[in-house]
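=== RUN LOG ===
request id: a7f3
mode: sequence -> structure
chains: 1
length: 161
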Amino acid sequence: MVMCISTTVVKTTTIDYLMLMKPNILFLCTGNSCRSQMAEGWGKALKKESFDFYSAGIEKHGQNLNAIKVMAEAGVDISSQESQTVNELAVQEFDYVITVCGHADEHCPYFLAKTKVLHQGFEDPPKLAKAFENEEKQLDCYRKVRDEIKLFIETIEDYLE
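=== RESULT ===
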């Protein structure tokens, strides 16, 4: 019995490999508990084919249960995302760092020269919610910012140019 096996050798170059890699985007805020977590969640839900998304804080404040709740209402589960600092991230090289609060913008840590640091601020839902005693009105503050972040993620390519 004779068997013929055909093999095709595909030569790839470093340029081909780099073109296949998705850009890394880090959303940075003060405590990585709310806005940056929402941005990471929306990014993974809406643009995961184009980018790899991460979030971190200058400090670590833990998960915000109201952020988790309103994202779940929109069909995005961020409950397994961890609150972490930049130094705790497994990935340390980013193509873009987007600060989502003024404090992070003003105190942004140093990143490699190839990293483009941008600022797109969003209001702080916990701070907005303090104006209300009614839980539903408090959650509306989170929903407002959640929806603003979603709109930003939907058009993120325009912002990165």
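=== NOTES ===
The helical segments are 14-20, 35-46, 65-73, 102-106, 125-129, 135-154, 156-160.
The CA atoms of residues 128 and 141 lie 6 Å apart.
=== END ===
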